[in-house]
Amino acid sequence: MRHPHHSLRERVGRSLGLFAGVVLVGSLGSSCNLDPVHRAGVNNLGDEQGGLYPPESAYHRPGEPCALCHSAAGPAGLQFVLAGTIFWGPDRYDRRVNKAYVRIGGPEKTTKCFVTNCNGNFFVRSEDYKNLKFPLLVSVERVIDPGGPGPTAEKSIRVRRMSSHIGREASCATCHILGLRDFGSPGQIRLYDTESEVDTAKPPIPAQCPNVDEPPLTQCPEDRL
Amino acid sequence: MSAIRVAAVMGVVGTAVGLLALAACASSPDENRLTVVITPDFDTYVASVDAYLTRRCGSLDCHGQPGRAYRIYSREGYRLYTIQDGSLVSGQQPTQAEEQRANFQALVSLEPEEMSRLMGRQGENPNQLLFLRKPLKIERHKGGPAMAEDDPGYRCVVAWLQIPVVQGDGTPIPPAQRAKLSTNALRNCATASDFP
After folding, report:
1. In sequence order, which ranges of chain B are alpha helices (DSSP H)?
2. A183/B76 CB distance under 8 A
3. N or C: which end of chain B has fewer CB within 10 A?
4. Across the interface, do A107 and B86 touch by the CB < 8 Å criterion?
5. Do the Cβ atoms of B61 and A186 come within 8 Å?
6. What is the pLDDT of residues A19-78, one digit of tens each?
């Protein structure tokens, strides 16, 4: 037979326990990633390589799928609608294209241009490209001296256009897998198809990144006033 | 615990075990059984339709993926690695004949019975196919609307599906005797293949 006082105490205790459980699960859901596939994808990226780039900066993790973390699922704070890294050649990780113009064209004939930073990274936030709609066409251009003086500064060194479109993926590196060319990936985004072509072209590669003495270029020629 | 409750629990467990045993005794599948599918015209698909579908739907971030029920192989996307010693690379060599055949099979295999019915009624009401319902957004499509009824790609696909492959009484029409795409349909297919 139940004791009436114990019964009340038990019921209050159970209610409090249930409330605490709901709060705990809710806080877990909001602070942790409960999607095991996404969580595994993020975990598989591994730790930041502090010796190669400044961690957790605009220069970090070149060639990795940016929007995996920079998405609504997190864990990064900023969300990207498109982001990637441009390399000079197909194999080498250390030769990346700074100040490349990445032009993105949408289905409604909208075009926006973005500039890579000194580590070859570019990213597009939703506020940078309002009403961005897929599919997208993308081209990449590197000129002699982006933003520089002189009549030949904006003359092209190399232009590449994607042969297909982007259907819906926000991370270039999801398809353009770093250093891999096989049945499932065309390889990292590159301006030359062989490293020997890069050797011959001797493209400009910044000795230091980031370089406080050199202000970053943020606008393509068509966007400059 | 009372004896009645114990008996009830035992009864439930016993029923569950019995059902499992019954399921285990189900007859094994008949490996010799064949389902005949009436397929649309393969030659027209290869000549006029595959280029559009691979271009529109086959990028690596959409149907150019092995996990898709409608999986597409093409130059611009995923490659068939069981041919040419796995040497095909995404974005390199042209789309191969084996890849086109695999694409055709993937398309037909989405809903083989529904495809047979559609061919049986000579392509009438093609939007019954999941293959069209999804890109038209009649049904949920993760990639959003990929076709519209007034775009050349849709018209190309429908013109292909409306090529009669069986007569009204169900007698097959040999491939050599089948109708060809009209000039207008060919133009639509060519325009659509340049997507986007």
Report:
1. 3-24, 42-44, 50-57, 97-110, 112-120, 130-133, 152-161, 183-193
2. no
3. N
4. no
5. no
6. 766 655 555 544 566 789 999 999 999 999 998 999 999 999 999 999 999 999 889 999
